[in-house]
Amino acid sequence: MNQENFKHWFVHQLLLNLRKPSTILLDNASYHITILNKAPTTANKNVEIQEWLRSNNIAYRESNLKPQLLSLVKMNKPKPIYEIDNLAAEYGHEVLRPPPYHCIFNPIENIWGITKNYYRDHVGRKGVPLNNLVQYGKKLFRKLLQRYGVKLLSIQKKNSF
Description:
The protein has a domain at about 100-160. Helices cover about 55% and strands about 5% of the residues. It contains 6 helices and 2 strands, in the order H-E-H-H-H-E-H-H.
């Protein structure tokens, strides 16, 4: 998966098919967090950092060295604006993200864990043929999402940081 593939799927498959304003939960995969208002880093040249400072109306001295310029950037760095969040907002939806490395707050991770445990304990022991297994899994996953999805999402919103 890459950012362009995800963006295409996100707009054409997800956003166009959601009927009412929805909350979309995304993790922090690199293709979910393309930042529109990136601030310069140590990888940027002095000229690029100065241009960013100028475009953001931040005063600096021409004689400032890179560490001094980056210090100004750090003090004035805006909150990131994510491309995917903007796309969702255009369609009337909201994007939530759990804190990094906190998959316990991600409902889909919890549902996926329940699904894997159920497969291990029940389905795998019955000798279900593979083609039936996939179909059975889809039904089970939908049931779990309907049963636990709203509850887990309310926990996510309550614990969002």
